[in-house]
Amino acid sequence: MYEELPDEELFGPGDFSDSGELEVDNIMNEAESHENDAQLTPDPLISSNSEPQKTVFPSIPGLFLYKNLLTQEQQNKLVDAIINEGYFERPESNQAMCFGTLPPFIMRVVDIIENIPSIFPDEIKHRKPLFDQSIINVYKPGDGINSHVDLDRFEDGIVIISLLSACAMKFIPAYLINKELGYSDTSTATNPNEVIPVILRPGDVLAMSGPARYDWAHGIEATKIDIIGDERIVRKVRVSITLRKMKEIQVLNQCADN
Ligand SMILES: O=C(O)CCC(=O)C(=O)O
Ligand SMILES: [Fe+2]
């Protein structure tokens, strides 16, 4: 079901800035080292109709961070499933994707996300399916992803799940990266120097819709250490799962191609 992402053009930015060899052992070691952490993670508020605590970013409407949404056990299960599926057996693989019906281990997280009342505006929240595409990215310490706005072929309403390591994701006004393309600024981002760092930790879920998805670019610096204010994050191997919905026209084109 999953395959490696061969075509950056088609499916979005896969522009890892330092892609040396990835050893799947790294992921496993990280997973094992977290196996006994379960008791450290507070129970998330995931029962239906209750809103888990979220961090909002006043400059970036539509950006919500649900810290620690996944318990340590849920995180371990996800990492185990990713390892067991063998997506990253080849040393050079650092990305795997799936279209259409998502695998059960991802759907379990989608169930949690679907039950967060205000994660997205209603028209996004109630679409069926909520997501039909997932990308799993593996970052070695020092890897990053260039600042980008997710491609227009994806609908609004995107979620990023973080596993195994913390990192800082930086948001910058999108017109800064679109300048060369001649895009005009219709953005909600008014200060061109504005860089908003968002620390993503294992178990966190980041949701982007509206201005957060279209007016701001997100990226992860290629560095082994993030320094955000007083905090120093030494990166370990990080796994992320990005969930999106393809626009209908893309799905039709894909069917026509096959
Ligand atoms: O890996 C991440 O945390 C971000 C991934 C991302 O932005 C993307 O795949 O478009
Ligand atoms: Fe992205």
From TrEMBL:
Native organism: Gigaspora rosea
Residue spans of biased composition, Acidic residues class: 1-10
GO process terms (BP): DNA damage response; fatty acid metabolic process
Cellular component aspect of the GO annotation: mitochondrial matrix
InterPro entries: AlkB-like (IPR027450), AlkB-like_sf (IPR037151), ALKBH7-like (IPR032870), Oxoglu/Fe-dep_dioxygenase_dom (IPR005123)
Protein name in UniProt: Fe2OG dioxygenase domain-containing protein
Chain ranges of the Fe2OG dioxygenase domain: 130-247
UniProt xrefs under Pfam families: 2OG-FeII_Oxy_2
Lineage: Eukaryota, Fungi, Fungi incertae sedis, Mucoromycota, Glomeromycotina
Entry's transmembrane regions: none
Region (Disordered): 1-21, 33-52
Gene3D superfamilies in alphabetical order: Alpha-ketoglutarate-dependent dioxygenase AlkB-like (2.60.120.590)
Coiled-coil regions listed: none
Domain of life: Eukaryota
